[in-house]
Amino acid sequence: MIDFFNLAVQYLPELFLTALKYTLPLTAISFFFGLIFASLTALVRVAKLPQNEWAAALLQIVKWIANAYVWFFRSTPLIVQLFIVFYGLPNAHIALFQSAWVSAITVFSLNTGAYASETIRASISSVPEVQKQAAESLGMTRAQVYLYVVLPQAARISIPPLSNSLIGLLKDTSLASVITIVEIFYLSQQIAAANYKVLSMYILVAMVYAFFTSILSIGQHYLEKYTSRFAQ
Amino acid sequence: MIQVKNLSKHYPDKVALEDINLTFPADHTTAIVGPSGSGKSTLLRSLNLLDRPDTGTLQIDQLILDLAKPLTNGQILQIRQKTAMVFQEKALFTHLTVLKNLTEGPIKVQKKSKEEAESSAKELLKQFNMTELANRYPYQLSGGQQQRVAILRALAMSPKYLLLDEPTSALDPELEAQVLRVLKELAKKEVSMVIVTHNMSFAEQVADQVVFIDDGHVGYAGPTDGFFHSNEKRIKQFLGAMSF
């Protein structure tokens, strides 16, 4: 026990520092872009086809692309996606993402975006149709109906599932270790390989993950409380 | 005046409305009555284009639209600025307080300033003795209060015509009475109203004219008295079925 305590004092600062330098930025940047992909995908998937034939055909194609995107990222493992982008594409001379960072952020944000788009789509659909009609009957345009009536309500509904996605993403950044990013899990492996304190090092890194995900859970709690003021 | 001519709407498996010709005069109250599923709600919703008829013309004051042609957003907006709709239930914006429900349209659509919209909303609330509800959210209101707020939200847009789609059908009788009292007051002020209702005694007391829709057709359109004392077999049958 004293041994563990000493290891904690010795390595926790380094683990926290690495989390601040790698794990948290990877999570935050990927989640930011993930939400953008998710919102765009969700809006495309709920959009009704317009009357104009050409516009309808174009939207239909975009819908197919959106569906294919969600399908691909939900039906393949994250680690395989990382390998395809970081090792596979350069190997085929498609050197779009030579940087491990860019590869990681690309894959994490597209992956999170695919899951979150389903969340956002469901939240949008859960806003009662009659409220949309009421907004339209006030003279709002389709865009105004979404901006002022649908999205504020959908946002509240989507907070718990999106928080899940964010917490999942933070933990998944440990997979960045497989594409050479020395984030906290990789770091703990390196230290354990040197000092043979395998169990202690993995418990320490688990504690660091739990620390940050707990902060996110607390944040979720307050956000839910704030946004639930208009519902029972 | 709202006027529809040769208005028809067909669903793949059913005719909702067939060759409807009607006039809804300004400053009058028209009650649309008829059996469930007869097309009366579709007719009302066609008047502000929430439902789009296949053919026919819709005229509101000077604006005449050919409904068989695609409509521009501008035309739809013009129609909606002259009309305001009150729905059966649960149409208030649940994320906004009563006051904000009343100011959302004036601010976002009519581009009024927040101060101006709020002061007229407060004036409306005061006029209908609902000032104390201003800062509540819809879930904190009774069904009757919700419907009265929905009526005020429509009035806050200063529409020329108020359209109401069975505004009391989801309410208990005593709550219904609260709402009907408000409507009766409005009718006295010569607000132009078109109301779809199941409440025959309300229609008889308040409406200046009655439109009876039966199976997608106009079964009667004329003075209220004439409808309730009609010798027409189908009308007698309908009125008989509505009482007990």
Automatic annotation (TrEMBL), chain A:
Residues 20-217 form the ABC transmembrane type-1 domain. Its main location: membrane. The keyword Transmembrane helix applies. It is found in: Cell membrane. The keyword Membrane applies. Keywords: Amino-acid transport, Cell membrane, Membrane, Transmembrane, Transmembrane helix, Transport. It is a multi-pass membrane protein. CDD domains: TM_PBP2 (cd06261). It holds the Pfam family BPD_transp_1. Belongs to the binding-protein-dependent transport system permease family. PANTHER family: L-CYSTINE TRANSPORT SYSTEM PERMEASE PROTEIN TCYL, MEMBRANE COMPONENT OF AMINO ACID ABC TRANSPORTER. This is Permease component (HisM). It comes from Fructobacillus fructosus.
